[in-house]
Protein 1
Amino acid sequence: MRNVTDKATFKRGLQLKNRIIMAPMTTKMSFFDGVITKDELAYYGLRSGEVGAVITAAANVQEDGKGWEGELGAYDDAFLPGLSKLASTIKTNGTKAILQIFHAGRMTDDSVLRGTQPISASAVAAERPNAQVPREVTVDEILTIIENFKKATERAIKAGFDGVELHGANTYLIQQFFSPHSNRRSDEWGGSLEHRYRFIEKLVDEVLETVDQSGVKEFIVGYRFSPEEFEEPGIRFEDTLFLVDQLAEKGLDYLHISLADYTRKSISKAYQAKSMLAYVYEKIAQRVPLIGVGDVRTSKDAAGLLEHADFVAVGRALLIDPHWGQKVLDGQDALIRTTVSTYEREELVLQNGVWGFMENMMPDRLNEEK
């Protein structure tokens, strides 16, 4: 039985001092040009030092991959000084720093991109209010995007991070190539399930090769995915089981499922016997470690999640209580802060982007009383 206090070593040699990981959460704290800010450094610094690792918010790998204002940039060497400060800030008391890298694809608009039309696998708008129709990328552009993920990985290595996470979840560009809703291509990059997987396969292979050829030691590569989509057509849970089966053979250091609730079941009637986390863990069959996530609030939640995962990622609980990890490791659940008020925003470095997320996603945990 795994315990949050257990150490763990990845295939590339990186060791975590415990099995608690800070989940990636959008901060919107960077400058307009993608440069890290003092507030963002303070936000991560406050939540580092106790958990085994911190996965950052998404950093875009090319300029037209920017999804929102205040997003961290990783698409140019000019970002190296800030990225180095971020890695150093996180790596307190043995906590490991993992840079999440992504491209927003169609999940942005021309105002964020300063007049540039968003791009995606196909010219199909997302099913969200005011979504813009993206431009379908050419084959040469696909190869350029993959090259830019590789360059961002090289920058993460130079900046002193301990790994990168490929953000293939939450309907961003990597997922858009896998989804039958956003990928309507008729060439080798679309169509069948296997062809829609081609972009992911080449991206993963090339990023892994980049790391292996760099000579860096103990630098890991992970992949995050969302288990299903509600769009029609869209990714179904059976598609995801195919995906994780393929990725489990790729030499990745971990897979990371994106869930709002770790106990959530599939929308598919064929997969109702247990949670999606349990099905995915069973499919992986210990070929690669799995990070689970989803509304973990207590040590009991963490233990329940670890029945079907190797690591527990914690997001919202660490926003409210930056010392949640140490309290759980020490068996001091009674000391965990469970609500937060507007009076405590400055103390907890909860700036507008994070606070807006909390207002939308966890209103039951906001307390207006001092």
Protein 2
Amino acid sequence: MDHLPMIAALSERFGDGLTAALIGLVTGVLFGAAAQRSAFCLRAATVEFARRQMGPRMAVWLLSFSSAAVWVQAAALSGLFAPNEARMLAVTGSISGAVLGGLIFGAGMVLSRGCPGRLLVLAATGNLRSILSGLLFAVTAQMALHGWLAGARGEMAAWWVTPDGRNVNLLTALGLPRGSGLALGLMVALLALYIARRNRIGPRPLIFGAGVGVVVALGYFMTYSLAQVAFDPVSVSSVTFTGPSANTLMAMLAPFEGWGFDIGLIPGVFIGSFVAAAIAGELHVQTFENAGQTRRAMLGAVMMGFGGMLAGGCSIGNGISGSSIFALTAWVALPSMFIGGALTDLLIDQPREGVRRPARP
């Protein structure tokens, strides 16, 4: 592979850990810019779904999802990436954690008005609500990983796990032919474009929405390439926010333990979002509207921190990165997040906002 000598040279000069952090930084910058310009958000897509409105947010999310699946599976078919070496597939998966954590996370993202990735993007533009929610999310994720909530998380995750010490690759487990994942991604892309055309969405959000998926594939490709030449073990992963947020928080508060992809990703997303918003003239300070909104956001952030760690990833870690490699737990967690979010909107937000559901024909 022509790119391996370049990555090997970077690794030899800077070390494996710092090279992984640089890859995370570049991945984060590109993701932050694409997410900011496309307004990519699972929470917004879930609310549209709950209100029977297959609108622009659903189109953008589906296009991001399909783009990741297409590019990741294309890389796998061409031999540029081996999905089974990705961190999510290389470790035991928790099905009970995916279900319960997904439901909790989905409810939390509706209460806080954004998933962790969206909160970080908004924080970079001056949204104070997102800054507070993001910090609470990271603190809770760290507590669920190594702190007071770790015992409860571990107990719930152990109720139902995948066999043989590994997650399950759905394409392999179902005996599907090569190219099935790529074909599914293309079909979802056609659905996304149909919804976009029906809603008369311009090209910009669609291009940047597809870019979100491309960046996820790039993250996998670069970390996998580094793992092939690194002297020390390197985790093959891509964009996610639960673990990286917790790790980045501890890197700022505790003695530094070493560089890695996670440490570069979070600052990269912030920088990319900030630059994209500055170029578009969309930097402005926003704050909470009232005390009730503050309480909602804080509760939602805590729920996302615990739920995301229990589910093994956030709406992007499971919903885009994990789903694109067809990890079983990701495909269980994603609909659980949709259900948790949709029920929260149906039972809390719609009655509060006086939303009338369309009459059945």
